[in-house]
Design brief:
Elements (H helix, E strand, L loop, with lengths): L15 E3 L5 E3 L3 H20 L5 H21 L20 H16 L8 E2 L4 H24 L6 H21 L7 E2 L7
Antiparallel strand pairs: 1-2, 3-4
Length: 192
């Protein structure tokens, strides 16, 4: 259990921050950029949740928010090599089962949607627009995490989770737009 009595420590005043295990890195380190984007994604989901009143959907999104804290902890825990991503009682890692759960939810939502006939514009109603903003933030978080993975070992399941999450948010945005019937379709070159 985490216990925070003091919010400021002044240890980051020099432009560094601590990782799990005590190592310190620059606040603009690629790992920290990925953690920051995951935090922003979690905040965007919080805004989207405020637009919803479906209890089951709220529960699902709160599970995802919790997963994103797990993902942040995973990113903040350095690994010595690409094979060092097994979770344990002392090391929090995103797991294949979390990715599988998202895939199942994507399939369940997508089964109720009309097939796409065009790319869609983010919007529709307030809830769908907020979910699309979270989706775009998830894509950025994924890009940032992939960039970090090019220079350090990052859990492949964390990367897969971010990829599936943006897909989940895409189909969820469509669901919130009356099952896709209120999607705003892109019309290529319409303003020429």
């Amino acid at each position: 259990m985490v216990k925070l009595n003091k919010i400021y420590t002044k240890t980051g005043d020099d432009g560094t921050t601590g990782l799990v295990g005590g190592a310190r890195v620059a606040k603009n380190d690629p790992r920290m950029a990925a953690i920051g984007d995951v935090d922003e994604l979690n905040s965007a989901l919080g805004v989207a949740i405020c637009q919803l009143d479906d209890a089951e959907l709220l529960k699902s999104l709160q599970v995802i928010q919790n997963d994103l804290f797990d993902l942040g902890a995973d990113l903040a825990t350095p690994a010595d090599n690409d094979d060092d991503f097994a979770p344990s009682e002392m090391v929090l890692r995103v797991t294949h089962s979390q990715v599988d759960r998202l895939e199942s939810e994507i399939d369940a939502i997508n089964d109720g949607l009309d097939p796409l006939t065009s790319f869609i514009l983010p919007g529709g109603n307030n809830a769908a627009a907020a979910i699309h903003l979270a989706r775009a933030t998830a894509r950025r978080a994924e890009r940032t995490a992939v960039s970090a993975a090019q220079v350090m070992a990052i859990n492949p399941q964390a990367l897969a989770y971010l990829n599936r999450l943006s897909d989940y948010l895409f189909v969820l945005g469509r669901m919130l737009n009356n099952g896709g019937k209120a999607d705003i379709l892109w019309v290529p070159g319409a303003s020429r």
